[in-house]
Write a structure and sequence with these properties.
alpha+beta; seven-stranded mixed sheet; 7 strands
């Protein structure tokens, strides 16, 4: 009875993280809930006498449940539609990966994993998807991931790297990512960071609106020297900007463009609304194209 109470307490302590991890790996809140419930059934029947790291132990169980679900999903698709299309051997020639697996690149990419990239994640092999999500989003080591997958740390690293290139290519290749609006938003952010009032004025409509501010000159004066931490992003598929703290989006800046000029800027800091947005952080101009 005492052991069961201990297991229940540890599971409750880590449950939110386990559910978030399952959702990232499966892309479905319903399936994530199923995975966590299945993990609980396994945990409640397990011998916990040798468990020294409850968090790691629970992560391993949930990850293996998710891996089984991903493999079953893939098998169902193959049964229904025949063999899946061959996976590309290289990133599209117009796309250049934004980094070389460095910590900064991985953190940026982790921020960008949203609903818009679930299609890409679904195209990955289950082991690739798991390695990418566990490492880039949840910061598990390749040694831990290798244990879950029953592979070496080097093999786990290779799986995550291959998945990362696919995801980077998808983020940079979307039409929205290369639209005229992206160029305007990116130019605005650069001018704002650099305090370039003249450049801001060129980008703004004379009657531009931001909250209580009215007129291009007033808006330009307000934004000159600001937006230091804002990153170019797709928000629900539309070019925008996002300010994050400790990897979590805290403010979303959206732009209304007409006639090649910014007519309105809105800043949303409501955590509930932000949580429901699909946010894909994009690399700066020149990093994702040859």
């Amino acid at each position: 009875m005492v052991e069961r109470d201990w297991v229940g307490e540890r599971f409750a302590e880590h449950q939110d993280r386990l559910r978030a991890m399952a959702y990232r790996m499966l892309g479905s809140s319903g399936e994530a809930e199923d995975a966590v419930q299945e993990a609980w059934l396994r945990v409640s029947r397990a011998d916990t006498g040798q468990v020294e790291n409850p968090g790691g132990w629970l992560t391993t169980i949930v990850a293996r449940v998710c891996l089984n679900m991903l493999e079953a999903r893939r098998n169902r698709r193959e049964d229904a539609a025949g063999a899946l299309p061959a996976e590309p051997q290289a990133v599209h020639p117009s796309i250049r990966p934004t980094g070389q697996d460095g910590p900064e690149d991985e953190a940026v990419l982790a921020d960008s994993v949203g609903v818009a990239l679930m299609v890409v994640l679904d195209a990955l092999a289950p082991a690739e998807r798991l390695a990418f999500v566990l490492h880039d989003v949840f910061a598990l080591s390749f040694a831990e991931i290798g244990t879950i997958l029953d592979r070496s740390p080097a093999a786990a690293r290779q799986l995550a790297s291959r998945a990362r290139r696919r995801v980077q290519g998808a983020a940079g290749a979307t039409d929205a990512a290369r639209s005229a609006k992206r160029e305007i938003v990116e130019a605005f952010l650069a001018a704002s960071r650099g305090g370039d009032f003249t450049a801001l004025l060129e980008l703004l409509d004379p009657d531009a609106v931001v909250g209580e501010l009215r007129g291009g000159r007033e808006v330009a004066d307000f934004f000159a020297g600001r937006a230091q931490g804002a990153r170019l992003a797709l928000v629900d598929g539309v070019p925008a900007a996002v300010w994050s703290h400790l990897g979590r989006p805290k403010a979303v800046i959206t732009f209304t463009v007409g006639g090649g000029k910014i007519t309105r800027i809105d800043v949303d800091t409501d955590p509930d609304r932000i949580r429901d947005l699909d946010i894909v952080v994009l690399p700066a101009d020149g990093q994702d194209r040859r």
